[in-house]
């Protein structure tokens, strides 16, 4: 019996450092597939392929099974798809496109990735009152995930007040049974003092973005702390929270779960999450050693 052949890729800008090709191809090969995953950096392509509309059309013609989508195209790509999954439509963001019978269908696995990671690593975490820093594309997905898992009160803040308010308004419509509010970044200390959990959905703490999204003096041992960043595996925020004895959740799990969910959409095959998780930890370690 011939092995299943799969052709996928990632569209975005400045994506040379992405782990997606290695992660997807290794899992595909472990499943006995002929799995090819290509980086499609629109900053480096030319002609029609240098536009979102063009690359979607070409992917159809070239026989791609699917595409992942990253910054800054998660909203823009929606205009060139035939259909959106209910969650992608609610979130107004797509990070996974599946090509089936000539149709391009958009999905969002960012929110499922965070929720699965939270449930796996912090199964007993209280969602009574959660503070979230960051309301961009990842932030909206994380907010949706937290509320889907039963967050009773979510406070959102962002350096861009309009973005925080848009996230608040969107979540209020989708989750009328929960309390969702937005506060200026300068006023986060009050809500954080009453919170059971803190989520960082900003780039602060990632390589090239030093610091912590909130002053570490605001952290407490009884405040669980989650970060969407996975490079480094332990951000300064996570390190500070762990030093206090607080429950923590790094971003590696979200990254792997969203990739695993996309893999299943592309192939129809359930991936081995633990194998993918071990692989991404190895990739991060190798990158850290090269940078040292």
From TrEMBL:
Q: How does it assemble?
A: Homodimer.
* Gene3D superfamilies the record matches: Leucine Dehydrogenase, chain A, domain 1, NAD(P)-binding Rossmann-like Domain
Q: Which SUPFAM superfamilies match?
A: Aminoacid dehydrogenase-like, N-terminal domain (SSF53223), NAD(P)-binding Rossmann-fold domains (SSF51735)
Q: Which top EC class applies here?
A: oxidoreductase
List the molecular function annotations (GO) for this entry.
Answer: NADP binding; shikimate 3-dehydrogenase (NADP+) activity
Domain Shikimate dehydrogenase substrate binding N-terminal residue range list: 10-97
- Which reaction does this chain catalyze? shikimate + NADP(+) = 3-dehydroshikimate + NADPH + H(+)
* Active site annotation, chain numbering: 74
From which residue to which does any coiled coil extend? none
Q: What does this protein do?
A: Involved in the biosynthesis of the chorismate, which leads to the biosynthesis of aromatic amino acids. Catalyzes the reversible NADPH linked reduction of 3-dehydroshikimate (DHSA) to yield shikimate (SA).
What is this protein's record name?
Answer: Shikimate dehydrogenase (NADP(+))
Note whether Membrane occurs among the keywords.
Answer: no
What the entry lists under HAMAP family is as follows:
Shikimate_DH_AroE (MF_00222)
> Where does this protein hold shikimate?
18-20, 70, 95, 110, 230, 258
Q: Which family does it belong to?
A: Belongs to the shikimate dehydrogenase family.
From its record, what is one biological process in GO terms?
chorismate biosynthetic process
Q: Which residues form the SDH C-terminal domain?
A: 251-281
User: Which Pfam families does the entry link to?
Assistant: SDH_C, Shikimate_dh_N
Q: Where does the secretion signal sit in this chain?
A: none
GO cellular-component term (any): cytosol
**Pathway membership, UniProt:** Metabolic intermediate biosynthesis; chorismate biosynthesis; chorismate from D-erythrose 4-phosphate and phosphoenolpyruvate: step 4/7
* Alphabetized PANTHER family for the sequence: BIFUNCTIONAL 3-DEHYDROQUINATE DEHYDRATASE_SHIKIMATE DEHYDROGENASE, CHLOROPLASTIC, SHIKIMATE DEHYDROGENASE
| EC numbers | 1.1.1.25
Its keywords, alphabetically, are: Amino-acid biosynthesis, Aromatic amino acid biosynthesis, NADP, Oxidoreductase
Give the matching InterPro entries. Answer: Aminoacid_DH-like_N_sf (IPR046346), NAD(P)-bd_dom_sf (IPR036291), SDH_C (IPR041121), Shikimate_DH-bd_N (IPR013708), Shikimate_DH_fam (IPR022893)
Q: From which source organism is this entry? A: Rhodococcus koreensis
Tell me the residue numbers annotated for binding NADP(+): 134-138, 228, 251
């Amino acid at each position: 019996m011939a092995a299943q052949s799969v052709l996928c890729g990632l569209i975005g800008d400045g994506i040379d450092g992405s782990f997606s090709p290695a992660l997807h191809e290794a899992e595909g090969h472990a499943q006995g597939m002929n799995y090819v995953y290509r980086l499609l950096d629109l900053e480096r392509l030319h002609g029609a392929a240098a536009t979102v509309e063009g690359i979607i059309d070409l992917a159809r013609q070239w026989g791609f099974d699917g595409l992942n989508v990253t910054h800054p195209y998660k909203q823009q790509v929606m205009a060139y798809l035939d259909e959106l999954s209910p969650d992608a439509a609610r979130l107004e963001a797509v990070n996974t496109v599946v090509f089936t019978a000539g149709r391009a269908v958009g999905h969002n696995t960012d929110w499922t990735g965070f929720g699965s990671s939270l449930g796996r690593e912090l199964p007993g975490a209280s969602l009574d009152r959660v503070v979230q820093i960051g309301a961009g594309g990842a932030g909206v997905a994380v907010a949706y995930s937290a509320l889907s898992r039963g967050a009773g009160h979510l406070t959102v803040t962002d350096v861009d007040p309009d973005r925080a308010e848009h996230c608040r308004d969107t979540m209020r419509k989708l989750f009328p049974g929960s309390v969702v509010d937005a506060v200026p970044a300068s006023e986060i200390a009050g809500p954080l003092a009453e919170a059971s959990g803190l989520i960082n959905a900003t780039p602060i703490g990632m390589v090239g973005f030093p610091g912590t999204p909130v002053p570490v003096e605001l952290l407490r041992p009884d405040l669980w702390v989650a970060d969407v960043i996975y490079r480094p595996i332990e951000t300064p925020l996570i390190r500070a929270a762990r030093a206090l004895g607080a429950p923590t959740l790094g971003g590696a799990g979200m990254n792997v779960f969203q990739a695993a969910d996309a893999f299943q959409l592309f192939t129809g095959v359930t991936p081995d999450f633990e194998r993918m998780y071990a692989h991404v930890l190895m990739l991060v370690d190798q990158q850290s050693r090269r940078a040292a």
